[in-house]
Amino acid sequence: MKEPVHISGLASARPDLPDLLDRVAQGDQQAFSSLYDVVAGPVLGVVRAVVRDPAQSEEVAQEVMVAVWQTAARYRRELGGVMNWVLTLAHRRAVDRVRSAQAATARDHKAALLEQTPAFDEVAEEVDRRLEQEQVRRCLRTLSELQRQSVTLAYYRGLTYREVAELLTVPLGTVKTRMRDGLIRMRDCLGVTA
Amino acid sequence: MITADLHTLTGSYALHALPEDEHAAFERHLDACGACAQEVREFTETAGRLGLAVSVRPPVELKTTVLRRIAFVRQDAPHTPGRPGRAGSRARRAPWSRFALAACLAAAAGLGGVAVWQHQQADDAQQRADMAQRQSQQLADVLAAPDAKATATTLKNGASGTLVVAHSKNQAAFVASGLPHPPAGKVYQLWFNDAGTMRPAGLMDPARTTEAVLLTGQVDQASGMGITLEPTGGSPAPTSAPLALMDFATA
After folding, report:
1. Which CATH number is correct for A9-105, 2.170.270.10, 1.20.1250.20, 1.10.1740.10, 1.10.10.60?
2. Of B17, B45, B86, which is closest to A192 when you measure between CB atoms?
3. Largest CA-CA distance found in chain B, in angstroms, rounded
4. Which percentage of chain A shows pLDDT scores above 70?
5. CB neighbours of B198 closer than 8 A, spacing ≥ 6?
6. Of A7, A8, A184, B137, which has fewest CB within 10 angstroms of its CB?
7. In this predicted structure, which of A48-52, A182-186, B98-102 has the lowest mean pLDDT?
8. Nearest beta carbon to residue A62 from set B14, B52, B62
9. Is the whole model's pTM more than 0.90, yes or no?
10. For A116-194, which CATH class?
11. Which residue of A has its CA nearest to B36?
């Protein structure tokens, strides 16, 4: 059994995060330390899912956390939760890190990418008791196969919709709509309101 | 592309699955499409849940490294006007004009500074903005100090480096350009050369090929600076041969 992982879910830590981030924006390093404790696990998880290489993942996670410190003043409460703001930043950085390399070698990875369900299932073995993950797993199962693959290849592998289309040999337009349809189902299943 | 087509891109956009050109085009569309913006917000939140589901426990050293790094990173100024009681800090943290920075670099580092700036201009806009914001006032002070003196060299890996020392500030800065990305798990570390003993002077950002950094610590008796490749997080003493050893300019 791997180390236990605590849930720092969207709901559980929500009350303090915007205030914490506000203090971070004012240069409060103690507040940053507290914020770090809440978001670093999810950040590293997202980055590792996409980047894979552990050392590079830690570098990217570092960059993300430094960027959180640096750009804290740019956060807008009206545009969503703090965790989500941070995770969006983390995913963007992770995708940027892998994308150029991945495009060059996409063909080599094709078999590997299709062989297994992307990142999610691998990670599931390690942290399968977590509520958040159970919910996401359950909701992913409500998607059609093509919706699920489109969403997970993009999110957990950092592929563009064009790469997904090539990988799954389906038309570009189909992938675009499946990504959207898949997210609509996930949104409704998870009860996301924004 | 017609609007209906663009609208189906909300999903790909929220998943960061749009190629660069389409990403920019879609963002322009977003400005004018309230329904799309709302859907993107919901999808981004949904994607965040996919992220939460793969949360891991980060190694302890990661926090140590991050906390050390932020101490040297200048923060963006708040955009929202009139935060009560924060007038002082707002002025203090006003972001540095990148043109002022360029001027300082050019003045302090001579042509090397100009070259660095031109190199930066070739980078994308976000990087450029980040770059300018990262410069601390201290760094600028060193580069702009009346007694700042520069030494230029070429590193063993082909990068060019300019070492600037300002004895009046007892501080030094290192400006690198064309630095290859360090191998995975490695980082460039800077050292003060105290009569042959290397004293840690901070890390370069592994993601950047062009960077101006303030050396951490005081110059004191150091005669120059070294740069080595070290494991991520840095080392207390060099563990590899220097990529360059540079003496502080004396004249």
Report:
1. 1.10.1740.10
2. B45
3. 69
4. 76
5. B191, B192, B226, B237, B238
6. B137
7. B98-102
8. B62
9. no
10. mainly alpha
11. A180
